[in-house]
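Reopening: structure tokens for the adenosine-5'-diphosphate complex, inputs below.
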Amino acid sequence: MIDQSNLRQALSTVQDPESGRDLVSLGVLREITLDQELIRIELDVQSTDEAVRGTLRSGISAAVRKLAAEQGLRRIPEIEIEFLSATATPNPLPLVRSVIAVGAGKGGVGKSTVSVHLALALARMGRKVGILDGDIYGPSLPTMLGLDEIPPKIDGNTIIPFEKHGLKIVSIGRLVEPEKALVWRGPMAHGAFRQLALQSDWGELDHLIVDLPPGTGDVPLTLAQLLPLTGAVVVCTPQKVAQDDARRAIRMFQQLGVSILGVVENMAGFTAPDGSTIDLFGRGGAEDMAAGMSLPFLGRLPIHPELAARGDAGEPSFCHDLDGLGEALRTLGDAFDHRIRMAERGEDRPTLAIR
Ligand code: ADP
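Re-run output (same inputs, fresh job):
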């Protein structure tokens, strides 16, 4: 007889082709109902790729046939598989046109700096832009955007975003003591992030940029489940060791069904006051990685003392008007904007090149 327990065991031998993990440990089995005639499985798989779904269907059907044979059944029950991601859930932020995550393989590569400057670049193009400090373990936007002295505003259950530098800003760093956030575990992090994202009065926005915690933890998963994402940007420094971490972050987004808008190389070269350039961490590593993974490269930012100083002073906009640095920021912003537009038009999906 096939029951829930031996069926789940059988499904633990079926691999998801995208992540290489089995369906049970991946946690995508939602509801299984069965009798001797019919097995119905609800799968929470983000991918809408028919090839992926086909592989899953045939893997499940093979596992059930094998189980039926082991149980000595003469009749194999019919199998019905429903992919839950196909049933669209209503968008909880209908006034926000696009939500873009900024992630990194590890901390300290300049993810928050890049998030802030990408948001500023879009705001300078006249867009309505919000930025959510989702780095709940180490929020740095209050300092970088100069919010430390402004009292947070909460109206009942609604967080009123700060408005500064032409951005709407929400950061956990101004709502709880940072020391508390550091010890949060999965479910609390999930809950806190959910509240920040959904209980803030964002109003109408063209773009909401979400500065994620580094690495591949719970928050990106929460975000991908909560909001329809236009895509993700991954920040990386040029060194080889940084690329390995960035690759993991990229794969995580891809497994969550989030397309990669592009890779940004940060801390690429240092321009000394005499104009000479020193490639402290090498150069081009992130671009090579992007090319190797067939992903767009959005551009690079140099190590520039003003990026750090103005970040510490809460005056990042200043950098956009500096000679040299302003151009680098604009070029990066333009490439980002271009990719967002492509993604909004659905043109960012990989196409098969026939040569
Ligand atoms: P992350 O979000 O990845 O942890 P941050 O954006 O907080 O990294 O950057 C870490 C530190 O490095 C900050 O003090 C920031 O001002 C500085 N920094 C980041 N990128 C640059 C850069 N290109 N040039 C100079 N300083 C930078």
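Residues 1 and 71 are 6 Å apart (CA to CA). The chain has a mean pLDDT of 88. Marking as resolved unless the reporter disagrees.
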